Amino acid sequence: MQSNPSSQITHRFQTARSEVRALLLQCLLPWLENVELVASSVPPATPLSYIMYYPDSGTRGRREGSGSTEATEMILNNLFYITAKFADSHPYIEELWGTLCQFWPNNLKVILRYLLIISGMAPNELLAYAKRVALYLARSCTNRLLDELMSELQTVETLNCLIERTETPPFYRLTSMRKASSHSDGPASGNNDSKVQDIGVEKGTIHTKRHSGEDPIKSG
Description:
Shape: globular
Distance between the termini: 31 Å
């Protein structure tokens, strides 16, 4: 992912004629087959991942590659921009998303988490386009999408989460508000204060059952 054709194509897409745009999308498709998305919150794929997702294919064995979270964000931002601006006139864009999530086990999870973040940052502007991309993914890999969604629901605790924009990288802040449990291990004290909702706000992290070792966003 060191060379990023998606940025060049996105730049040309804005001024190209409709028939040229269709050709640009076709050029992008085979490149996306070899793109493995990388995210710090997603563990690297293992040989077992390939067996689970591609049990009937002898050609999709484990492949080695290199990439970065910055390149991943650039690719997803470019594809999402093309989708938001041109998907109505170029249905072929759906095939790009389908290809991106089919050839590497972790790509679908990375895309889903990207959609959750950007739709939370600007729901009024971006939620409709995020839903469109989710529909593309559902058509391309229905069972895997359901598995990933169920996995996310099982690993994330019940919480209310706010996503705020910031001026410094990664340009957003996650604020979680946790409800304290109303159950008590000891005898009832009769104190109504124990039943009052306790809201704890922690910036820069979402609490999950798989806690990370450190806060990914720390203020200097």
